[in-house]
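Obj.: predict assembly geometry.
Materials: sequence records (below).
Method: joint structure prediction, all chains together.
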Amino acid sequence: MRIGEALDAAGFAELAAEGVPYVGMLDVEVVHFREGEVLVRLPYRELLLRPGGTICGPAIMALADIALYGVALSHVGRVPLAVTTDLTVHFLAKPHPGALLGRARTLKAGKRLIIGECEVTAQPDAQPVAHVVGTYSVPPASGVDASAREA
Amino acid sequence: MRIGEALDAAGFAELAAEGVPYVGMLDVEVVHFREGEVLVRLPYRELLLRPGGTICGPAIMALADIALYGVALSHVGRVPLAVTTDLTVHFLAKPHPGALLGRARTLKAGKRLIIGECEVTAQPDAQPVAHVVGTYSVPPASGVDASAREA
Amino acid sequence: MRIGEALDAAGFAELAAEGVPYVGMLDVEVVHFREGEVLVRLPYRELLLRPGGTICGPAIMALADIALYGVALSHVGRVPLAVTTDLTVHFLAKPHPGALLGRARTLKAGKRLIIGECEVTAQPDAQPVAHVVGTYSVPPASGVDASAREA
Amino acid sequence: MRIGEALDAAGFAELAAEGVPYVGMLDVEVVHFREGEVLVRLPYRELLLRPGGTICGPAIMALADIALYGVALSHVGRVPLAVTTDLTVHFLAKPHPGALLGRARTLKAGKRLIIGECEVTAQPDAQPVAHVVGTYSVPPASGVDASAREA
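Observations (raw structure tokens):
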């Protein structure tokens, strides 16, 4: 069902940060990127702390959104206008200061909606930090393939 | 059910930003703050843009989290360890570049869990941008009131 | 954006129950039905009880799903293949045995997705029981209007 | 952290159905029940159909709620007043008429909140049908262990 230019880890990393300064400053690294499975890493920085010496919620949600956006694009390629439709976060534990991993996988890759889940864990001990489910809407393709995609 | 020091708009604004640099840089203003109802404003900055000339999702989620955290603290006062348990965001439309408002109200103020909803709209035309529901967990009080709170 | 035959309260009540026996046995009444706003009522029956003398969660979720499905169809008319994409329920209080009301309204009526929220309250005192957000997917229209709908 | 009488598959099956007639008529079978992992099965019945020849959403949600409630009780034992706090369902595909499985596991087993996820699949081919995340609130224990549980 690919409709855009194919992406690899480097291409997705660039896309995720480019032109989104508030997200780009997280310096998220794309560790793995393949169809239906994306692993991203949020390096530790003092910028991310909140009282109690833990990582703030908005940074955790941003990390998961990047991972899930990656999973969506892993199916359809470079479609910049794919957008988050809904995101549900359950916070499981407050991580100690340190890097976080976001591991996302596809739950459903439909023609119009792609649904994924992401587990956020803390390094080095893989402590569960958050569980996130998200839906991404893929715009109808322009051009000759549009009718096929709606089938 | 108040268990901490009372908060007003200025006190909550300070609490929301202090020691959370990644959130503090959003410069969120607390417009109204009273029990069960909090209105916050995210001023427009280029930092928040994403491709397509719209405000990035993580900034919208951060705004709603602040508003809902405010609603939770409006019931219990200064309880820094109140934490987000879950947050569900539905994105409704991509706002044009400009300021956003987050208007949160209480759905339930229980002894241990406070649930609220937040509507995010764009200024100046009040275009709906996102709808958010969140749950906040209030830790058991320490000291003499603990048993009463668990009743 | 209507694409199906128009519906009124009686037409929607019939559609909601017909051919769905497990839902039909709830005997849900459609009190109001107009574009963007639907009010439904779940009469009290012992069938719905759970231990503690309160209404069971699955009946509350079914009521909200009906109300939200009604809101979706209020925009597009009789489109039987409109389906629930996601549903997020927050339970606020355990109702006493009695009838429940589900009041749903539109948050977004897009071309492909309709998002609504529903407040479930208990009669006679309007006690808040649950808050629900749901997304409904509207299939692409067949026939001459298909391309217009995707614009 | 056990606070109630221990449960096994038979004990949980009885508890899930007893006194909840609207859920009991689903005849859900408890296939596996051990700490942190519960597998339940919804046998096919015409009662569950909706137009299009698929299983209705409320039955799918009820199945997931049972599985997740089981996961919560697998940690704390027989605590009838444990209640669902929130439930988020994403529907992935419409199952063909047939039995459904709900496989739930623990995401977090806290002192006051237990969070789990449940994958609903269709038999015989394990087609993914729905993904569900739920939170269950465990009431403070009465008696001598209450203070310990709040630690």
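Conclusions so far: Residues 142-151 of chain C have pLDDT under 50 and may be disordered.
To do: check interface contacts against the pulldown list.
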